[in-house]
Specification:
- The protein is mainly α.
- Helices cover 61% and strands 0% of the residues.
- The protein is rod-shaped, with a radius of gyration of 34 Å.
């Protein structure tokens, strides 16, 4: 059926009552998820900061030892032979 003019019903539209309930549930889920991941992320950030600080401190100690022992003329190196050619 096609209408030539606009057709309006004379009833009040209160909207869907389920929408308000879903909004409350959605907010509760968002809060639960955000709280669930906030603590592990904070722990990971703290661990990363501690590791970064430890590595920086190790580099400072190495530089101080090299300066004291070798007068900044030589640097410590590892005995890593990974770059040596393989003999068949």
């Amino acid at each position: 059926m096609h209408l030539a003019d606009r057709f309006e019903l004379d009833i009040q539209n209160d909207g869907n009552p389920l929408t308000a309930s879903l909004a409350v549930v959605k907010r509760a889920i968002e809060q639960y998820v955000s709280h669930k991941f906030v603590k592990p992320i904070a722990i990971a950030e703290k661990l990363f900061a501690q590791l970064s600080s430890a590595f920086a401190e190790e580099r400072q100690h190495r530089r101080a030892i090299e300066k004291e022992l070798f007068g900044d003329q030589y640097k410590f190196s590892t005995n890593n032979d990974d770059d040596l050619p393989l003999v068949p």
